[in-house]
Amino acid sequence: PNGAGKTTTVRMLSGLLKPTSGQASVCGMDILTQQDEVKALTSLLPETPGLYSKLSAVEFLEFIGALNEVDEQGLYRRIDSLLTILGLEGRQDNLLESYSSGMKQKVLVAATLLHNPQLVFLDEPTSRLDPSASILVKDLILALAKETGTTFFLCTHQTALAEDVCDIIGLLIDGRLVATGSPQEIVESAGGNDLEEAYLNLVGGRIDSEKLLTWRS
């Protein structure tokens, strides 16, 4: 749910925020003592990323590639490959300000994949998108996981998205991991017809509609 600690957790795991206690490893690397190694093996797409609208897609990706010290020759091959996979060939030289929200999100996803990370953190990747763009991003995650072999760590409060995309799910409530497993395992354990009902059973968040309407009497 909102405020459960998802973004804080991702920032710690990606090396952007130092934990006050506890231990964790990412790709076999300790997040406290091997932050540089963690950052080299991972990538993060935050919920509200920056996008330079006066640059073209290629120019923006060149800039991100330079920041990540991607080899120049390999960078252009990588950009061409990603733009083709994402269906942006033919529009790569257009300014980003002319892109739809879904197309912009495609470019941002491409930016996270430029240095060929083993693991990509996606923090609420559909929160600012309309329904059609959200479906596009969902399909994109599934396709890229298959095409590139990259592992995606998805943070979302949208149970339907998690159920459609994720192989393994962890439910975080008030900073505590209360359930882990496949969507089917969590539904079977917590009860309900789908992940949303299982989540409500775990947190006791279902509202009694009769009590809710007592104000009318």
Structure, explained:
- With 217 residues, the chain is an alpha/beta fold.
- The chain has one domain: P-loop containing nucleotide triphosphate hydrolases (Rossmann fold, 3-Layer(aba) Sandwich).
- The chain contains ten helices and seven strands.
- It has helices at residues 6-13, 35-41, 57-67, 72-85, 101-113, 131-148, 159-165, 183-190, 195-203, 209-212; strands at residues 25-26, 29-30, 42-45, 119-123, 151-155, 169-173, 176-181.
- Strand 4 (119-123), helix 6 (131-148) and strand 5 form a beta-alpha-beta unit.
- The longest helix has 18 residues, at 131-148.
- The two termini are 32 Å apart.
- The model has no long low-confidence stretch (mean pLDDT 87).
> Helices and strands: which structural class?
alpha/beta
* Average of pLDDT: 87
The tally of domains stands at 1
Q: What's the assembly state of these chains?
A: single chain
Which fold name corresponds to the CATH topology? Rossmann fold
Find the CATH superfamily.
P-loop containing nucleotide triphosphate hydrolases
User: What's the story with the biggest beta sheet?
Assistant: 3 strands, parallel
